[in-house]
Amino acid sequence: MTKKITFQSTNHGKLPIDHNGFYGQFGGCFVPERLKPNLIELEEAFYNALADHTFISQYIRLLKEYSGRPTPLYRAENLSRLYGTNIYLKREDLNHTGAHKINNAIGMALLAKRMGKKRIIAETGAGQHGVATATVCALTGLDCTVYMGATDVERQRSNVERMTMLGAEVVSVISGNGTLQDAVEAAMTEWMNRKDDTFYMIGSAVGPHPFPEIVARFQSVISKEICDQIYPLTGKQAPDYVIACVGDESNASGAFYHYLDNQNVKLIAVEAAGQVIESGKHALSICTGKETILHGARTLSITDSQGNVTEPYSISAGLDYPGVGPLIAYLASEKRIQCLWATDNEAVEAAFLLARTEGIIPAMESSHALAALSKMNFMSDDIVRCLSIGTWGQRSGYFSLLQPQTRHHYCQIKFFD
Ligand SMILES: Cc1ncc(COP(=O)(O)O)c(C=O)c1O
User: Fold this and answer.
1) 250 C-alpha vs ligand 1 centroid, how far in Å?
2) CA dist., res. 229 & res. 367, Å (int)
3) pTM attached to this predicted model
4) Pocket around ligand 1: residues whose beta carbon is below 6 Å from it?
5) Which of 182, 197, 215 is the last residue of a domain?
């Protein structure tokens, strides 16, 4: 007789999630049976940790003392003047390691230690999650292997250097386009093969339940802080708009989290349109995507006419992913979020505009959210909370940085083979 496996999902916070990990028709857990016990173990450990005051205190202490939170909510005066409204930037770039990814990595490292795991694996696109993972592993004494698509290893080489210096092994994945999708598949396959001692520190709100929920909850510190910061700065209880770029959705789900049930706050998700106009190449999973199973969850992904997931394209490694997390897919289907897009060229223009008006160089991912500012009609008294800025890596020839030699391991892996 087989034991029926059920997820507990007892503590949902603000997320509209059911007992099987579904947000409406999106999400769930579409993995081989042998992986399910691990996901159940992870879910139980996560909810127990959330209920444990010591765990939460440790998490908050590290966010504060190690990462430097709360990050400022900065009024971008020059940009506000340019767009005739009130633009505030949530400065996630001022976190330790330069992006929001550390919020999740700290929480997950504490969870892994609590579960007695000794080894961490992670995937990375832009390298920001890889650097955050390598950083917390160094801090907590965990072994660390990061899977990164070969294309991303080249275009984000400075982050490969950082991971290596922090003691992580970087595995360059040469399957597919050598981008984030391929890195996720490689990491998931490795987790299937070594699930007993290994913790999969996923960097985005994608994958089978409970990963999307864990990531969204650890990233929700972003909107929690905005809630605390906005009134003293503006005299308003909430912003009129929250705008975030959407790759796999971790910064977006974190920035939207505390506003999900406040209909007065318009939530704007900006996707990467790549070179859609020139050559049809893009990463528009919400705007053009179809319902598919991707990396263990039902979500929206870009597909061909047969419904097969196709290779995405974006100048930005962090947005170069064929799908979106299930929470954002659900919010889009419910029309709770509005979806806009920005092309490579628009994102680059927006990056230069921010650099030259505010003296802040944004990540190429965040630049997509900035590009959306020119596509909207704001009122002069609107409060616009725009994105999580992150640090600019080495991107596609726009910047030419030094490229010291690194050693990589090469592998070719298929997902759930
Ligand atoms: C600064 C920054 N923003 C956004 C993203 C996209 O990822 P996500 O949608 O999970 O936030 C990345 C990915 O590396 C990033 O580095």
Assistant:
1) 7
2) 23
3) 0.90
4) 99, 125-126, 128-129, 204, 245-252, 318-319, 363, 365-366, 390
5) 215
